[in-house]
Amino acid sequence: MPIKIHPSVRNLSRKPGRTAALIILSLVLCFTVTAGSLIINGLRGGLVSLETRLGADIMVVPYQASTKADLKGMVLQGNPGYFYMDRSVTDKVSAMDGVGQISEQFFLATASASCCSYAVQIIGFEPETDFTIQPWVQSSFKGDLDYMEILVGNSLNAFPGDTLTFYGSDCKVAAKLEKTGTYLDTAVYANEETIKTLISSAKEKKIFDFGDVDPDAIVSCVLVNVADGYSVEEVLNDINIHVRKVEAVQTQNMIEDVSRQLTGVSDVVSGLIVMVWILALIILALAFMMISNERKKEFAVLRAIGASRGYVVKMILKETFLVNIIGCACGAALGLLTTVLFSGFIESSLKLPFLLPGAAGMAGLAIAATAVSIIAGTVSSAVCALRISRMDTALILRGEN
Amino acid sequence: MLTLRGEGICRQFIRKRKDSNVFYAVEKTDFELPPGTMTVLSGESGSGKSTLLHMLAGLLRPTEGKVLLGDHDLYSLDDKPLSVLRNRHIGLVPQGQTPLMALTVKENILLPCTLYRQKDESSAEDKERKAEELMEQTGIADLKDVLPRELSGGELRRMSIARALIMNPDVILADEPTGDLDDENTGIVLKLFKEQARQGKAVFLVTHDRDTFAYADRRFTMRSGKIEAVRDEI
């Protein structure tokens, strides 16, 4: 059995202060890249999710809704709201050239007063015609939604079997939907019959000023998918010209606003990552250089007792690799934990859709960030290791270098 | 046992002077360290003693000439074979304090045994035993698990000597080996070197210490890069 002494390991374990400082540096390096990548990924995931969930080419809403910016607030930020237009709009729109799929939606905001379990947005849809909510719903709930049954978004603190009360009407939770990272996570979904009952109850409670709205004769929004062979702009213009008191909005335009904001935020985050990286790498390289200078006589002694240049380089790299692997693993874990714990805060402060990847995706990202950080950290010390290995041993032993 | 010899070696350094930009730290010379002899080189500071020692150790390439260890021309070898040769055949005691601060005394002494897979031979237990023996001989046996920061200069120097001897080298090169030692330890160390020479090793001490002269088989002195044999005292 050969004698085994691991100078690299000994050097780290017997200089705990210095080792801890180096580990913290590499932790910062990896934390930044993990948390930053997860945030950028979460923002992109949120945008994709929003695009998928909106799922329609055109939204037709009452003219006032589009001008009051209620629509964007509701659709993009999940602010509870409601607006209604005459149901005849659906017939007019469906009769127009180029209209493919069409489906109605009904919005009702609930208050946080004693009338309701939650202040949320309730979205009613027609199960027979819906093409935006049901494809998403199906992964969490199979079957038909009965009268006074509801589905709840992932962020709501309600579970299947619970009963929620809205304007005095009890609704049974049939399923909790999977997370989308968008406003849809804070909404409640009901079929057309249920939401009409809830609108009637709300009207009776007189908490909001509904005027003389007849629940059977109104609709909040008509979603349109354009038929093959027609352009979205063409159909959009036709609707805006021929149907009065409504505004047809291209959903892609709304998403583009979000996309622009998201690009801006991503750029800032990326810039910060790059800055922190450059700083951390410079500090790491300087730290390794200072430590190596301080230990140059030790390296010269190693050469004197017969260590090759390669041995010295390997020894330095092994030390930095060990430091980096510990620091980066901790940094990645901390980055993962922080991003997951604060994802709600990130979403609310950025006011943008935010959907983190699944556990496997996040683990993959953290592993990739760890690998990149370890490589970068080790490379930052490689130059120093090479320099040290080529120093003039004789001069250092004589104390002249 | 191998003979270490320098053939026509000299070493120039660049240093601005009145009449020249270079000076000879060691002037052209032939110098041999035969097995079984203890050679002592003394001289003033800056006379070129350490430069000669480092050239002989394969750590400082001569400006001219070659250094041969047996048949091996040290400076014609690549770094790895030269390092292996130094590890196996040359025991070097550098000037000053030279511990690896993170290793204990015993680990410092055993370090040369861990650099390469050993060809022969002695098992780890043998090396451990040899290390214990050397620590005993140099009077640092009770310090084996102590870290260098707790040692005195003299103890560190004795550790460095034990480390140079652990590989049982053919040639021992020591730069001021008794520099930090008191009289008693100087005697112990010099006897140890003398014993190594008696076992057939080539021992070369570079020193200011006059106490070493009595142990020398051959004595040289160095002045301004020139080596002269001191014959009358041998």
Keywords:
heterodimer; A: 401 residues; alpha+beta; 2 domains; nine-stranded mixed β-sheet; two-stranded antiparallel sheet; 11 strands; elongated; B: 234 residues; alpha/beta; 6 helices; globular
Layout of helices and strands:
The complex is a heterodimer of chains A (401) and B (234).
Chain A: H1 7-13, H2 16-54, E1 58-62, H3 63-67, H4 70-77, E2 85-86, H5 88-94, E3 99-109, E4 121-125, H6 134-137, E5 149-152, E6 163-166, E7 169-176, E8 187-191, H7 192-205, E9 218-219, E10 221-226, H8 232-242, E11 246-250, H9 251-294, H10 296-304, H11 309-341, H12 343-350, H13 359-389, H14 393-397
Parallel strand pairs in A: 4-8, 5-7
Antiparallel strand pairs in A: 1-10, 1-11, 2-9, 3-4, 3-10, 5-8, 6-7
Helix pairs in contact in A: 1-11, 2-9, 2-11, 2-13, 9-13, 11-12, 11-13
Chain B: E1 4-14, E2 22-33, E3 38-43, H1 49-56, E4 64-69, E5 72-73, H2 79-89, E6 90-93, H3 105-114, H4 124-138, H5 153-165, E7 171-175, H6 183-198, E8 202-207, E9 218-223, E10 226-229
Parallel strand pairs in B: 3-8, 3-9, 6-7, 7-8
Antiparallel strand pairs in B: 1-2, 1-4, 4-5, 9-10
Helix pairs in contact in B: 3-4, 3-5, 4-5
Number of strands of chain B: 10
- Highest CATH level, the class of chain B: Alpha Beta
Report the β-strand fraction of chain B as a percent range: 25-35%
End-to-end Cα distance of chain A: 39 Å
- Portion in helices of chain B: 25-40%
Contiguous uncertain segments of 5+ residues of chain A: none
Spatial shape of chain B = globular
Order of helices and strands of chain B: EEEHEEHEHHHEHEEE
The helix/strand class of chain B is alpha/beta
Average pLDDT of chain A, rounded to a whole number, is 85
Largest sheet of chain B: 6 strands, mixed
Radius of gyration of chain B: 18 Å
Largest β sheet strand count, sense and barrel closure of chain A: 9 strands, mixed
Give the number of helices of chain B: 6
Which class do the helix and strand fractions of chain A yield?
Answer: alpha+beta
Could you say what the CATH topology of chain B is called? Rossmann fold
Evaluate the radius of gyration of chain A. 30 Å
